Amino acid sequence: MEGEASGPTQPLNILLYKPIVLVRHAVLPPLGLGYLARALQEEGHRVTICDPGRDRLDWNGFARVVGEDCFDLAGVQMFTPELAAVRRHLDLWRQISPDTVLVVGGAHVSGDPVGTMEGFPQADFGFAGEAERGLADLARLSALQRQDPALLAQVPGLVWRHGGEVRVNPNPPVRDLDGLGFPAWELMPPASYPVAPHGLVCRQAPSAPLVTSRGCPFACTFCATQAVGTRQFRQRSVGDVLAEIRMLAETHGVREIHIEDDNFTLRRGYVLEFCKRLHQARLGMALALPNGVRLDTLDAEVLQAMERVGFHSLAVGIESGSDRILKLIEKSLSRDLIAQKVRLIKKTTSMSVTGFFMLGYPTETEEEILQSIRFAKELPLDHVTFTCCMPLPGSALWEEYRARRGEAIPWEDFFFYRAVEGLSELPADRLRALQRRAMREFYLRPRVLAGALGRMRSWDQVANAFGRVVELFRRG
C-alpha cells in the first residue's frame, strides 16, 4: 500500500484461531493460519495461534485466553459448518475485549462475503480469498487509518462496510507461492497434534500437513475451492517444498507428510520430479494424500514413483456410482474410468485407497444412492466416506440453492452428518438412514475390517476410528 500506510505504525499483538466445535475429527496444524502468521511476523507483529482442538480448550478456557492477554487484533478461521460457534466466539470477544479488531476469514467468508458481514455484525472486517497480503496490509493501518475508505479500498480481498453497504475488494491470486515462505511452524509444532490427524491415515509420528499448490481449474458443481484459491492453478517449486520437508524433519522431528493439495497429481511431470528429488534426499519420510486426487491424473508410472518414495495412502474423489449424477456434477469421470483407475492403484501399488462419496445431490434418487453403495463395495477400496451433499457457499450448487431458498438458509443443517433442507428430494431422515446403511454395509465385511485393523499403529488410532463410527451413528 502507498502513502501513510507504507509501514506499520507499531507492532500489534495478534491472535489467530480456530473456533471451538463439538465434533472435529481432523485435528491438524492449521496451515492457513500458519501462512497468515508468517506474513504478520515479517511485518514485526507478535502473533499467537490458538487451536482449541489441539489445546483441549472449552469456552471457559478460551475466555481466559482472551482476557489474559491484550490482543489488538483477532482473526478467526471460518468454515460453513462452524457458523454457530463463530458467532458465539465473536459475542464473547465483544463482552471481554470490546476494543479488539475482529476479523473473519476462510472458506465461508470467501464463498459468501456479503452475507457473512451482514450476518455477523460483531466482525469489523472479513477477507475473501488468499489473505496473506491483505491481512498484513490491514495490520499496518493505525486505528485512525482504518476509518479511511481510500486506504481500506486498497487492501486486497478486504470485506468491509461503508455507507451502509458491504464492499469486497479485488484480490488477485498470489502467483509466487515460494515467496510466501513457510508457515509459522514454531506456533503450531507438529508433535503437539494427535498421532492420527485424519483418523487412520498415519504410519509414522509425528506427521505434518503441507501444500504444494493452490487453485483448481476444474468446475465440479459441488466444490467451493475456487472461491478461496480461484481457478488459476499455481504450484510451489519442488525445491521449496523439499526444503520445507527437510526443515520439518530436522527442526520438528516430523516423520510423515500429509500433502493436503486439491490437485497434487494434476501435473504429471511435477509429481515425477518431486518423487525423484525426494528419493535422492533420502529423508526416510512416509507420505499420504488424505485430501483426495483426481483419478484421471493417475497412471502406473506415477503411482509406482509415489510408492517408491514412501506414499502409503491416498484418497480419491468418486462422489457417485451413477453416471447420470457424475455428469450432473460435472466431474468429468465415468463409472468405467473410476473402476479402471482404482483397480490400477491396487494392481500397481500396495497403497491403501479411500473413496469419497456424496449422497443427496439434487434429483438423485434412492436407487442411485443404492447404486453408489453397491459400487463402493465392488471397488477394491480400503476406506470410504459417505457424506451428505452440502451446497457450500462459493460453489455453483450454492448459487442454485440460494436462488431457490432466498434468505431461508438452514445453516444448522450444514454438517456432514445432516441433510440440508430443500436440497435433496429425499426426506432428511431417509437420507441419513441411507448414509448409515452405506457405512455399515461397506465396513462390516471381514476383508475391510481386517485391513482397517491391520493398518492401525496405536491405540490412539483405534480410539479415533471408534469415535468416528460412534459419532456417525449417533448424529446420523
Search tags:
alpha/beta, Rossmann fold, pyruvate-formate lyase- activating enzyme, seven-stranded mixed β-sheet, six-stranded parallel β-sheet, 15 strands
Q: Any idea of the CATH topology of the largest domain? A: pyruvate-formate lyase- activating enzyme
Residue fraction in strands: 15-25%
Individual helix count: 19
Biggest sheet: strand arrangement: 2-1-3-4-5-6-7
Q: Percentage of helical residues?
A: 40-55%
Structural domains: how many: 2
Q: Globular, elongated, flat, extended or rod-shaped: what is the shape?
A: globular
Runs in which pLDDT lies below 50 for 5 or more consecutive residues are 2-6
Terminal-residue CA separation:
49 Å
Query: What characterizes the major β-sheet?
Result: 7 strands, mixed
Radius of gyration, in Å, reads 22 Å
Mean residue pLDDT: 91
- CATH architectural group of the largest domain: Alpha-Beta Horseshoe
CATH homologous superfamily heading of the largest domain: tm_1862 like domain
Output the CATH class name of the largest domain.
Answer: Alpha Beta
- Based on secondary structure, the structural category is alpha/beta
- The strand count comes to 15
